């Protein structure tokens, strides 16, 4: 069925004299075109509210309204898909998985592996590519259905599980508590922090572009209280920190964000005496050893620090 334009529909209601050449020129081709113009604008305005149909310049406003931050290299398709799942993401604020998902989304399109480790030695891991699979982006393996969705006991009236729950059931993010704490950031350099169980650290395994420059470009020193070794624009790093502040638990404090080059770094199953791990001196960037000041932290990693109240 073809719906006529409003100006043509109104023309059928005009008296005979107004349907002649001069009357039609003034009404149908003149004044009535405003109705079609207004209806087209209204249609575009209505569609602009929906992520799937919104024009490109409307997406930043939709994301801001839904509390999402687009990554510097995130595709428009990924932004639209994330905007549709915003309520699922919002429900995870204050949980480790919510924070890791938000950070991984910001690092699109690589979606690198991310870990969180607490002062009490609890590790949370989000597998590489999880956000791409949750969003159903091209090139990513679809998430498998949950067991109850395929089994005989699944009720036909049950709602399918959200994508985030499918990811959890697929083992894409896990929690691990080793027998002994293997992460000792500052027990020697800052022993007063020993009982601050709300402290945690984030470990990111970024692609080469994630912080602009590669790991072999030398060190760039910003304010020691903010970053150490990053070569990226300050604005990008500040946005990264803003995501951490927005998704972490209310009382928790992210002491540092550590970017490391290899997936084999900082494994949750490593022994407490692993020489590649923090050894209690990492609260300060240098220590006095044999009468000389030496670096405490690994030089192949980069570090961003959040303030005590962040």
Question: Can you walk through the features of this model?
Answer:
This protein is α+β, with helices and mostly antiparallel strands and 310 residues long. It folds into two domains: 42 residues; 219 residues, no CATH class. The chain contains eleven helices and nine strands. The strands form two sheets. The chain has a seven-stranded mixed beta sheet with strand order 3-2-1-4-6-9-5, with helices on one face. A two-stranded antiparallel sheet has the order 7-8. Helix 7 runs antiparallel to helix 11. The N and C termini lie far apart (59 Å). About 4% of the residues have low confidence.
Average pLDDT score:
80
Report the portion of residues in β strands: 5-15%
> Sheet bearing the most strands, described?
7 strands, mixed
What's the total helix number?
11
How many domains is the backbone divided into? 2
Which descriptors would you attach to this protein?
310 residues, alpha+beta, 2 domains, 7-stranded mixed beta sheet, two-stranded antiparallel ribbon, 11 helices, 9 strands
């Amino acid at each position: 069925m073809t719906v006529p334009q409003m100006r043509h529909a109104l023309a059928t209601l005009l008296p005979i004299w107004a349907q002649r050449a001069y009357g039609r020129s003034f009404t149908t081709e003149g004044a009535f075109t405003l109705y079609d113009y207004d209806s087209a604008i209204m249609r575009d305005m209505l569609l602009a509210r929906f992520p799937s149909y919104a024009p490109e310049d409307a997406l930043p406003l939709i994301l801001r309204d839904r509390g999402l931050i687009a990554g510097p290299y995130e595709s428009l398709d990924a932004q639209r898909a994330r905007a549709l799942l915003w309520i699922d993401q919002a429900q995870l604020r204050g949980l480790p998985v919510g924070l890791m998902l938000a950070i991984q989304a910001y690092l699109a399109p690589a979606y690198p592996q991310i870990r969180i480790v607490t002062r009490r030695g609890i590790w949370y891991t989000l597998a590489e590519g999880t956000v791409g699979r949750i969003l159903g982006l091209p090139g990513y393996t679809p998430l498998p259905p949950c067991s109850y969705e395929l089994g005989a006991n699944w009720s036909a009236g049950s709602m399918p599980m959200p994508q985030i729950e499918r990811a959890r059931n697929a083992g894409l993010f896990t929690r691990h508590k080793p027998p002994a704490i293997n992460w000792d950031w500052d027990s020697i350099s800052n022993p007063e922090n020993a009982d601050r169980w709300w402290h945690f650290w984030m470990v990111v395994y970024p692609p080469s572009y994630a912080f602009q420059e590669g790991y072999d470009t030398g060190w760039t020193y910003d304010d020691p209280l903010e970053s150490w070794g990053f070569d990226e624009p300050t604005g990008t790093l500040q946005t990264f920190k803003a995501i951490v502040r927005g998704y972490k638990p209310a009382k928790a404090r992210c002491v540092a964000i550590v970017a490391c080059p290899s997936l084999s770094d900082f494994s949750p199953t490593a022994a407490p005496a692993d020489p590649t791990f923090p050894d209690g001196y990492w609260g300060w960037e240098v220590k006095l050893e044999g009468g000389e000041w030496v670096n405490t932290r690994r030089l192949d990693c980069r570090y961003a620090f959040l303030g005590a109240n962040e």
